[in-house]
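The protein record quoted in full:

***
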Amino acid sequence: MKKVLVSFLLIMLTIILGQTAIAQDTMETLHDGGSFYYSPSDSSWSRTSNSPDAIKISKRGEKYYAAGKYAFSIKSDYDFISKNQFAAVNNTNLKFYTAEYKDGKFTPKEMTPNDVQSMFDDVKVFSTSALQKEPDKIKRDPFSVKAYLIVNDTDFDYSDYVFSPKSLQRSPIKGMFTVRQAGPVKFIKQGDICLQKKYPYLLINVRTDMDKYKNMQTPAPVRVQEFYYRNY
C-alpha cells in the first residue's frame, strides 16, 4: 500500500511539473517571412517540397504569395501546419482560416470547429455556438494533462476575453488551454471577474474521473499530453 501511495504521489508531481511535455500532435509553426508548400495533386500542405507540382507559399504580414506572386490575404496571429493541413489563427476573434486552391487560385476560407478538430488527435474542440447555449463538461483523467480548444463559429466579439484562471492558457493560440485539476473553466470579458452578467461568458465544468482510482493495484503509466511547438 505504501508503494502504491508513493508511486501515486510521484505521478501527480510529474503531471504538475509537466509544463513542456510532448504530445502525439505536433504543430509546425510558420513564421512571417518564411515559406511552405502546397501540393495540388493531393491537396496537402507541408514545410518542405515533397512533390513535383508543389507551389511555394511565402508570407509577409497579412499577405501570402504563391511562386512570388500575391495569392491571398488572412489576418492572423499564428500559422501552423498539422496533418498536412494549413491553418491561420486570428486570436482576436478565435477563428481559424485556411486557403482553398481551385482553378489555379487560392481563396481564404473560414474553418469550422469540425475542420479544426480534424487537425488534431489529442485535442478536444469546443464551438462557441454550443457553449453559448449551455456549459459543457470535461471528465478529467487524473493521470494526464490534456489540451482543449475553443473555436468561434459565431459573429460574437471575443477580442477582450480571457481564461479564468489565467494559468490555463499556455499556448500561442488564444483559445487553447490545458486542464490539470477539477473546477470551472471560464472564458470571460477581461475585467468582469465578478461575473455581473453584464457580458456573456463561456463555461466548461471539469470533474475528475474517479473510476481511474478504483481497484488501483499498481500505478498507471504517466501520460502527460500537451503541445510542443516545432520552430524552423
